[in-house]
Request: fold
Amino acid sequence: MSGFRMYIDGKFVDAVHGKTMDVINPANGKLVATIPCADEADVDLAVEAALKAFPGWRATYVGDRVDLIMKLAAKMREHADELAVLETSQYGGPISKTRAFDVNAAPGNLEYVAGIARGLTGHTISANPHARVMTIREPLGVIGCITPWNFPMTTATSKLAPALATGNTVVLKPASCAPLTVMKIGEYAREVGFPDGVINIVTGPGGTVGEAIVKHPGIDKINFTGDSKVGKRIMELASQYVKPVASELGGKNAFVVMDDCAVDGAVEAGVYGAFFNSGQNCGSPSRFYVQEGIYDEFVEKFIAKAKTITMGDTMDPATMMGPLAYPACRDNAEKFVAQAVEDGCKLLLGGERPNTPDTRDGCFVAPTVLEVYDNRIPFMQEEIFAPVVGIYKFRTFDEAVELVNDSRYGLCASVWTMDYRKGMLFIDRLKVGTSWINQHLEIVTETPWGGRKESGWTKENSLLVLDEYTWHKHIWINMDEEPHTFWENYLKA
Ligand code: NDP
Reply:
């Protein structure tokens, strides 16, 4: 048992300089655990361990690597109840969500990649009669993974699985407010027999530990999920070392409701997408564009449905929505709502802090809906990452295309219409990574996930994920004794 210590070189350790930090339950402000607060010295030790482990791990047969990954997944499934409770306590996602989603999706990432990794191949080309040319897929080395808090262990396994299966070793830094389930993964990895140093987990502030990982010369690639501003900072630092950065960043996602949609389905999906996990999903819709002919009906039904969301004790299976992850997230959401009202928006629902015995000590924000008249205001342009949405009335198809694309983000969007041809023509013109017709937020591991523009450029999930953790070494074999060059006749003469 680690007792929530860091996992470096197969050992559970405290920070070199002895510092600690607290993990607080955002639903009630109570202490969940005290954990090590690392700095550059701990990162050095973790990278040293990962470098030492790399040659042996890389040389291991892929079948043996994926066997260990499957054992890790099984261990997580065995401990699903404990992990769900821990996930809920540390970041506030209600137990109904962590039991239904996280404890399945996190090991699911490991199982999916364990299946596809054995099919990894390079290419062979008969370039000309004298040559055989091939590529070999090689691991990159040590991967620095930096993960957010909104799906703590699921995001961690989505990086760990492909990194490990392809023969890389890892230094992983989870988010400081929600590191505990990721720390558990270290504990299980040891129990199932991962060699020392293959997985290293370091906890501490992004500005110190995260940046030390990015800058460390022993780290070959950064795989980051988080806020676009932090992503830019990481790219800026990494560019000084020409170090590749895979980035899954923020979103400001559109939900477009056409006059000819099945309105009740659109309402249900819109309420779910906007408020599931308190809107703290990179793919949540937060900009609703509704066509004028259906506007009044959609808005009335949307508000009525949003009012049925239950908030409260996150350990109660009947609770649908928990708090935001920490006080600054709540304050930020409240600030954006106040600014939007100043900018002329009309508050249709929410806007006040819930004040029941189960919510008043936590970082709760009630489902909040604003009617918006200007798409350029910060409320419609900035990622707020909270259960707050804007609804805007549009008239034409072309106007809706422009509204969706009028964003520096490009993660995902959905369009609601029973005319699928129209839906296809609409999504053809969107600059986003994922688009749905009559669905929002649903994804499966088999399909790639990732954004465009300031939402990043990486592909997570699907067969494509293996490309993020390998490179094609190009090998040329000349079949003749003599080399072939453009000068060969001159040089021989
Ligand atoms: P942050 O960007 O604040 O934090 C993510 C991670 O980066 C944390 O581990 C954090 O550490 C670390 N970090 C912070 N500053 C630095 C730094 N200067 N250098 C290196 N690392 C740093 O994101 P959140 O945790 O708040 O997560 C929410 C964000 O993640 C949203 O923007 C959301 O859209 C995005 N996201 C995107 C997804 C996608 O697929 N596109 C999926 C899920 C989330 P610490 O916790 O110590 O600050």
